[in-house]
Batch of 3 targets.
Target 1
Amino acid sequence: MIVFRTAPYGTIYAFEGLENVLIMGAYDQDISVLFIDDGIYAIKDGMNTEGTGIKNFSPTFRALEAYDIEKVYVDKESLEARGLSVDDLVIEPEIIDASQVAQMMEDQKNFFIF
Amino acid sequence: MKFGILILEGPYQHEASDSAYQFAKAAVEKGHEILRVFFYQDGVLNSTKLMEPQADDRHVQKMWSQFAADTGTEFIVCVAAAKRRGINDDVIADGFKIGGLGMLTELAIEADRVVTFRA
């Protein structure tokens, strides 16, 4: 499972996390991707990074589908706490709650947290 | 147990690399195997031989290079992360090799546990 939990642009965790997902997607592995806490902002639609001089990489997450990464989730509480819904995102992850997150984490072999 | 180690922070700013080193050393002493140490994100900065800490401080790169020499453990520095931080074959120290993220993926497949050290 690859977990995005930090906001984009302030640090490079999310961007290099995305690079990592795209490489791992090229291998025939059972990959899950979870967006939680401020990590949700990495897939927020309509980001304008022009004033920062940093490339807006959120649309690149749409490539997950092309890499056959279908297990993409977003944490319900994190989404609600930020006043967002899936309509605000560049992709359509499945919304899961904290107990489902916990259950899903039980089943994972590896975690890569960005 | 077969461990993989992933380091995401550079030296000195964070303790992550020191902790990873202590972990790796202890694991080997206990008879475990470290399949590979993968340096990603700012972790790639641990590999530069240009670092020159004050004499009374630990030398993080030399600690790692010594560990590689003593144990034969493979250290891979992510090429994409290294390039954007000015790390290349000219500056990487003994024991480190530049490689791709595929080697992190393979590590995740082969190791019993991949332990990440980050801030």
Note: Helices of chain A lie at 13-25, 63-66, 76-81, 98-106.
Target 2
Amino acid sequence: MPNPKRRHSQKRTSTRRAHDALSKHSLSECPNCHEKKMPHRACAKCGYYKGREVVEVEEAS
Amino acid sequence: MRHKVAGWKLGRNTAHRRSLLRNLVTSLIVEERIETTIPKAKAMRPHVEKMITLGKRGDLAARRLAASYLMTDESVVKLFDTIAPRFGDRNGGYLRIVRTAWQKGDGAEKAFVELLGSEKVLDEKREKRAEARAKRVAEAKKAMEEAEAQAQTQAAPEAAEKQEEEK
């Protein structure tokens, strides 16, 4: 079976992973409650989408 | 070449998929709004639109075709009498799919599918649900208060003693 000939340095590993970072989601602002929300989705905080309540959000009591 | 137009298999065999889609379409017609996953919502869309087109035709043959696809007679009646007339001047695009959150467990993206023009019905339904909820809460509160009052009057001496002992 083939085996590695040389030790793999930490630098080599970290250099390879330099491009592996995840990017942040771009968020838009909910026009109803001004919370950050995912674009093209109903707001998770107030349940509004395009000016109308779409989902009922349960308030923590 | 008709590459990439196969549609959705939804991880089911043909019979299972057909059943699922028929159930989804029937539910949507009866309820006007259902919650499901994005791929199911997209897969059911053409089937719903075909049913509404049948509803707009409105003749006996169309009614029989619809009845052979939809699961309940009630849904056929509703499709032909109340839903199809709503879309008289619209050629397709009868559905609205609103993405909501992700499903717990498998992380599937969920969405509400609703028929256009059903806002009034849905708002009425929502109001009814809110009323029922308020009623339930009020009843529960009342019951709790009554139980508390009863417990206090019935076991007032004992409870007082117990409380003192605990202290």
Note: The first strand of chain A starts at residue 28 and ends at 29.
Target 3
Amino acid sequence: MVDNRVALRVIVASGILTILLHLLSGISFAENSRQSSIGGLSPVEALKIGERMYREGILASGEPMQALVQGDIPVDSTMFSCVSCHLRSGLGSLEGQVITYPIDGITLYEGITNAWNMRWVTGSKYSKGMTGFLRSAYNDETLAAAIRGGVNPDGKTLKYTMPRYPLGDKDMAILIFYLKNLSVKPSPGVSENSIRYATIVTEGVNRTDSVFMMSILKIMAASNKPTRFSMMALSTIASNPEDSIKTGYLNISVARWELKGSPASWRSQLDDYYKKEPVFAIVGGISNDDWRPIHEFCEENRIPCLLPITELPVISASDWYTLYFSKGFYQEGETAAKYLHGIMNIPQDIPVIQVYRNNRQGLAMAKGFEETWKGLRQQTPDKRVLTSDEPITIERWKQLAASKKQAIILLWLDSKDLSSIDMLADAPDRPKMVFLSSTLLGKEMYVLPQKIRDIIYITFPYRLPVDFAKSEPSFAGLIKNNQYPAEYPITRAKINFNLMILNKALFMMKGHFYRDRLLEVVDMMQDETTMSLYPRLSFGPGQRYLSKGCYIVKLGDGVTPNMTPVSGWVIP
Amino acid sequence: MSVRNMYYLVAIMLNLILCFPTSGARGSDRPEYTRTIHEYAIPDVALFNQDGKKVQLKSFLRPKDKVIILDFIFGTCTTICPVLSANFVNFQNKLGAESGKVQLVSISIDPEHDTPKVLKAYLKRYKAKPGWDFLTGSRENIERVTNAFNAYTSDKMQHYPLTFVYSPVQDRWFRIDGLVATSELLEEYQKALKR
């Protein structure tokens, strides 16, 4: 919460904190100047060990934290730890009907009123009429009693969902020191009444798209008032006028970070931009190249990156800071494998060949397919890897068809490579199935030769055109014509959605502008099934790829062919 | 704000007001839950377990000689599911050799994310023993199941703690609303063995 209390603490702590900012962006010393030793550790060490206890449930000794939940259920850190419910920011969560209260360094050490509670949970302005205390302020002793025995400062028993941790004095001191410093200072890029974002554009992206992205972000920034979405939200459940200012009337600025040259050179450019002016988060961004350097920059500096437009994200089950629309090309490869595996009448020993160029797109598709295929206990597929400038001649098509009769061929190639694909249809031993990617083909997908369409299967990662007609009017209104996806501005739709999510998140943060909190509130959002390009964007704690599946479609006849799904929404 | 969200908000506010004296701090010594008895019509849908093997749910949930204990969870759930799952594994440990008389079943309410691979990793994380299966499937089938158990919520983040115990002797389900201790789950198991 950006208020005077925080500002005071920040002033007290600012000297020591400078050293730690780059290591622990969400954490700062609030009142450590008098504490030279915490459980025998220096403040820096204590924060590090404390974070490990909080997030991973590992004690200073390296042993897992043990606890008792619901009165008689022993749990250890392999199952869950403090962060599971209270989240990284310590600002708590609301899951179904279970409320997990904040345990950040500010809230713990102040008394909580019933009115505060109501406002915290619901944001309701009607909380002002409520009276009474929910609990008194904790001090170090009462906090230790709560963690060990589940008793609050007023002697009341905490819910049994809160585990009881029998920590020794040293571990307790470390954990309390960590909590005392958790989310007490606004994140970099945030001041009393402003938030600074950046967006990223790399060389080679469509200029129209990048101009559109900047223009829409600038409108948001320059207006210096609630956007349409937050205005709507504020009019219904705003906490009070003060919160309205915090959520809606912030000065927002967006820097354009333009990255030039090859991805290998991006990191130093990013470091320079960040050093010059830290930002709270990266919003969107567009690149045709590998997003990895930006992903790693955000991960190391603990900067949220919301929904960049890339088909080449980093595939990770544990990284935290970048939220993607999907796994991009990799996901289309995954889907093809899962779909093929599910077809009942395909012989087990049928040859499968992947054909792709030795570039990032081809490699990502092929990797997605192969990893999934092997995970389904299938044999490693054959591959034909083309160099970046190797032409695909008619002879080459014939060789491909003749190499394995009645094969399944996955052509992870773009439209330029497929100009003579009809040679495959003419081959004596034509393939049984040919898989293509709609993302690589773009609008050229619709002009594939008629005579090969019967064996063509296409991965299609968006909502089907026919389903757009059933969409809510608000979304249908965004569609400019009936040529989706050939002409529909996919990039623009993604940018619009990104802005919607950002505004919603800003409101849900209720003034708690911490980087981890931004991602936490996004994680708590409900699945989106109507307002995006995708059939379903699925949120969830730690889930970093919102769209999880893909369709497999076939093309009909004629010059304006219909697109017909041959599968449901395939989840790899 | 959508009508759905408004209903949700009102529900939360009512919940807060009604349980305010014990919200966040409670005076009782034991967790509380409610228990009701039902006959559920299980849909004949195919789901998949953590090994990717197909499970016909209707027959799977009606064994002649086993107690079924079932819940609805998801792999990245932060608050409710970890407690339910820790209880499942503690229950298995407490039963010891007798655990073969019980089939534990968790059904994912986040089928887009919870692939068999995720389910398998989840069970491993909780040190599940044989006899605890984690099922997933198409969203349509999952919703048929949650509707059948009167456990449907429009979004996974709105779910609430539920455990169902099937008595093969009585051919009925005990529905437990709320989070329970292992001792209480063992009591329900014993009741499920009696006529």
Note: The longest helix of chain A spans residues 490-508.
